[in-house]
Every structure is written in structure tokens, then in C-alpha cells.
Write a structure and sequence with these properties.
This protein is α/β, with parallel strands linked by helices and 380 residues long. It is built from 12 helices and 23 strands. Bound molecules: zinc ion.
Length: 380
């Protein structure tokens, strides 16, 4: 394999030397409007060197030199809007505000003030420049992991990550476990006194916003599984939730029972919810909850295929209408609280806020802290 690598490096020299004929910095790829609003875009290279973007197989293949996996630049462009320019002085590759710079044959590239090694220098095959995926993307701040047990290389990156305070490493760490969660997670037993409150639908924006603020007052987090139509109507509430560090999850666009629509329509519902959130500058990935908990194994596979993890719940705090009351919900939480439990509530009226305002001080006094789903899962 070493001989092969050297051959490729020689090829690189020849091809880059050809590029050096260009007198000045020459933009090779037009800076088309790539979708960089969705901050969670996943490139997977499987062991056959097939390349997948957010679960969709692309027409191009990766290459392998020793342990190094290289992908065509057009993959990086399609996934994250990467552009590059080559010149006789230096080559530059840009993603968002990050710029990697290298000189044609150099075994290193620079990122800001730091130098990073290429295991294999970028090389061209036909019109395509191949870039070592992990070597470039990890220093640029991407999440890079190997899926178990498939051995697929997975890379998630967003231009938003460096800028936004809501990057959650714990959430990203779950990527490696996506295939290992067979059914919706309902609780995670452990010694730590943590509880994960989750809020579905959120039809009442005022109740939702007040709950987000309340958890913040307790230095805690919670999770909101939002419906796309609600998010579209109240983007300011969504932004505030994210600003306070809470998790946003996907609860479909318009809240149908998945068991009553086609699989294709169900997948569309998940994607449409994510698109609404992307339009606000946030993401619902990677957590999903079924409306009405109407789910089965086949439907859960659709969720997984869309790149989401299904989150269940151990207890719903509300009784059915018309028996809903603050007293009943508070009693339910008192009865079923245990370390690692996931509760679900529905802030479709201010009643849910009143329940939380009543119970949080009591739980805090008992030593509980309040965690989002990503924080809960990161404790396994
Ligand atoms: Zn719901």
C-alpha cells in the first residue's frame, strides 16, 4: 500500500503542477447555493467505499490509500458547501469561516495558526480532487466516528457549529449508537438523580416559552418535541428554547398517527418538520417522537432510515381529558419519579407550566437535576 500511496503522491505532484499554470487564484468550483442552513449533515463512507449523504447514496465513490479514506471534493461541496481554489502560490479550501491552506506538494496544511498533516496529500482523478475526509474534517470541528459493527466512517459537520452556542457534543456522540438502540428509549436507570422532562406538541407557545425559562432558572434542561406547523408559526419560541440550551426533537410536520398514513407520507412528515426547523436555523436531529406513540418496528425503521433516534417515555404526566388537572399531574410525577426516568407532558395550555412550577422546586430539594435527552443519553 505504501508503493501505491507514493504513486498517488507522484500523480498529485503532476496534476497539481498542471494546476500551477493558472496565474492567480482560480476558483475551480462555483460557489453555488449549497444548503448550509441545516447544521447537521451526515456523510457516511461504507466499507464498499460507497458514499452516503444523510442516508441517500451518492453516485460517486470514495478511495482508500492505506487507512486513509478520500472523497471527491464534490461530496464535501454537496454536503457542506465547501469551495476551493488552486494557484501557483497556494491552494485553499473553505467551509463557512474556516480556511484550510496548503502548498501543492506539502505534507501539511494550515488551519488558522496551526498545522495539520495530510496522511495522503489531496490528488486528482479526472476532474475530481480527492480530499482525505477525516484528516481534514476533524480539525475543522466535525464529528468523526466509526459505526459499530458495520465499520462505516461517519462524519457530521456544520458551518453553524463554531458560531452557535447550542452545539451539543453529547448529542453528536449518540451518532455512534444509532444502530444500537432497538426500541424507543424510555428511561436510563443509573445512580445519578437526573430526570428528563420532555414536552410534546407545544401548541401553546406562551406555556412552552415559560417552561423553557423555568428549567433555565433551575440550571436545568429539558426537551421539546415540536410539530413543524407550530415551529413555523412561532419561530421566536424555538430560537429561545435553543438559546437556553434545551433540546429540540422532531414530532412530524402536522402530527398524524404514523400507523394511519403510508410509509412514504410518514417519512415526508419527518423531513418536512426538519425543514421548517432548518429554516429557523436549528435542527430537530437526531431525536424523534411518534405522535400518539403510534409506532411499530416497521415505522421505527423508517425513523432510523431518516437518521433519527426514537425517544419513548416511561410516563405521561397528564390524565386524559376531561380529567386533566394540576393535582393529578403533580401526583403522577411524585409517584413515578426515579433516577433516569423520561416523563412526557403536553404544553397545550398553561396548566403544564403550573405543574412544572409546582414540582420542580420539590424535586430540586430532593437532589434531582433536570437534563435534556442528549444529556441523559450521554450518561450511559
Ligand atoms: Zn404529540
Amino acid at each position: 500500500m505504501i508503493g501505491n500511496g507514493k504513486l498517488l503522491q507522484r500523480l498529485t505532484v503532476v496534476l497539481l503542477a498542471t494546476c500551477f499554470l493558472a496565474p492567480l487564484v482560480l476558483p475551480v468550483m462555483p460557489a453555488q447555493a449549497a444548503d448550509t442552513t441545516s447544521w447537521f449533515r451526515l456523510v457516511t463512507v461504507d466499507t464498499n467505499l460507497d458514499v452516503w449523504l444523510n442516508g441517500t447514496k451518492l453516485s460517486m465513490q470514495a478511495k482508500r490509500c492505506g487507512d486513509t479514506v478520500l472523497v471527491p471534493l464534490s461530496v464535501l461541496h454537496q454536503a457542506w458547501g465547501v469551495t476551493y481554489a488552486l494557484s501557483n502560490v497556494c491552494s485553499a479550501l473553505s467551509i463557512g469561516d474556516s480556511h484550510a491552506v496548503w502548498q501543492g506538494r506539502s505534507p501539511i496544511y494550515r488551519l488558522g495558526q496551526q498545522e495539520f498533516p495530510w496522511d495522503v496529500a489531496p490528488f486528482m482523478v479526472g476532474a475530481q480532487l480527492y480530499i482525505p475526509l477525516r484528516e481534514l474534517m476533524e480539525p475543522m470541528g466535525a464529528f468523526v466516528g466509526t459505526a459499530k459493527p458495520s465499520g462505516d466512517l461517519i462524519v457530521a459537520y456544520s458551518t453553524q457549529w463554531q458560531k452557535q452556542p447550542w452545539l451539543r457534543q453529547a448529542q453528536l456522540a449518540q451518532l455512534e449508537k444509532i444502530d444500537q438502540i432497538p426500541m424507543g428509549v424510555k428511561s436510563l436507570a443509573g445512580r445519578a438523580k437526573v430526570v428528563a422532562f420532555t414536552f410534546d406538541d407545544n401548541w401553546d407557545p406562551e406555556a412552552t416559552a415559560r417552561i423553557a425559562e423555568l428549567f433555565h432558572q433551575y440550571n436545568g434542561h429539558c426537551t421539546f418535541f415540536v410539530v413543524g406547523t407550530m415551529a413555523r408559526a412561532h419561530p421566536e419560541v424555538i430560537r429561545e428554547i435553543v438559546r437556553l440550551g434545551h433540546d429540540i426533537g422532531n414530532h412530524t410536520l402536522s402530527h398524524p398517527a404514523a400507523t394511519k398514513i403510508t410509509g412514504t407520507d410518514f417519512a415526508k412528515q419527518i423531513r418536512a418538520c426538519e425543514q421548517v426547523l432548518n429554516g429557523i436555523g436549528v435542527t430537530s436531529r437526531p431525536y424523534f417522537r411518534f405522535p400518539y406513540f403510534a409506532q411499530d418496528k416497521h415505522l421505527m425503521k423508517i425513523v432510523t432510515d431518516q437518521g433519527f433516534v426514537t425517544i419513548g417515555s416511561a410516563w405521561t404526566i397528564e390524565d386524559t381529558e376531561p380529567n386533566r388537572s394540576v393535582a393529578h399531574s403533580v401526583a403522577t410525577i411524585r409517584r413515578f419519579i426515579s433516577p433516569g426516568v423520561i416523563f412526557v407532558a403536553h404544553p397545550n395550555s398553561t396548566m403544564t407550566y403550573t405543574v412544572m412550577k409546582t414540582i420542580l422546586p420539590e424535586l430540586a430539594a430532593r437532589g434531582y437535576s433536570f437534563v435534556s435527552v442528549s444529556e441523559l443519553l450521554s450518561r450511559r
